[in-house]
Amino acid sequence: MWTRRWCKIGWDELGHTAILFCYHTEDTTTEKSTAISLERVEINALLTDDDLLAKGGPAYAIGAWMLTDSATSSCMPLSIDTRHVFYAESNEEREAWIRDLQWVAVHSNIDNGYIIERDEQRAMLGSGSFSTVWKGIDRNTGKAWALKEINKDGLNAKGQEDIREEIEIQRRVGEHPNIVFMREFVETHSHLYIVLELLPGGALLDCIIDSQKGHFSERDALGIMSQLMQALEYIHSLKIVHR
Predict the structure, then answer these.
(1) Is 50 left (phi over 0), alpha (psi -120 to 50) or beta?
(2) Which of 42, 98, 113, 202 has its CA 20 to 30 A from that of 106?
(3) Sheet containing 83-88: which strands, arranged edge to edge?
(4) In this structure, are residues 107 and 188 in contact, taking their beta carbons and an 8 Å threshold?
């Protein structure tokens, strides 16, 4: 049995966690019938049951699985009782709802969008004074990305300003074959995340040190310098200076 509801996305009082508010009527100033926290959730399109369609039921289903800490790493729902199902009136409406729900969910908790096995040593790609870089798997596509995790508590106002300037530059750069691509920037109440293209080849310096002679051949060095010059030429065309 399905019931018509009017829904909107909001945040808790602290602005930390997204909430899906559902109402009995189109007037969203009235009392809410349901409030669903999106702190631990996975949002996906669902195939609709054929029997439901045969009875004239709605066709464009959205599933919201409530996750526990143990389920977060395995990408599995806790149980069937923790699944909420919603129906949109068209495929376009469903895609818009999924896009918006996934966006607020990942900004509530990065684990809603990416599987990060923090207990696995190999998942940590690097670390610094204020940040750690993790290998994260996109829950929807299964593709691996590099997630630069920055704790806000370790940054003063100037530090946060510098990070946001870095993000803006990355957005201006966009996609270029010789520059690491930034997929998205995610901000939760406690951390900043820069989601970057994962480059499995390692650092250039390590490649030089590990090479057979301890240095590149002239031909190999020429190829690498050519790529570097192409990247510099591109960012200079955008009025960006690398330092």
Answers:
(1) alpha
(2) 202
(3) 41-46, 60-66, 83-88
(4) yes
Q: Show pLDDT as tens, one digit a residue, over the chain (243 residues).
A: 567 788 889 998 888 899 998 888 887 777 767 888 888 888 888 876 655 555 556 678 888 888 765 443 333 333 334 778 888 888 889 899 999 999 999 999 998 999 988 877 778 888 887 889 999 999 889 999 999 999 988 888 898 899 999 999 999 999 999 999 999 999 999 999 999 999 988 888 888 888 878 788 899 899 999 999 999 999 999 999 877
Closest CA to 191 of 130, 138, 135: 130
Identify the residue whose tokens are 């040593």.
121
Contact 134, 116 (CB under 8 A): yes
Residue 148 marked as a ligand binder: yes
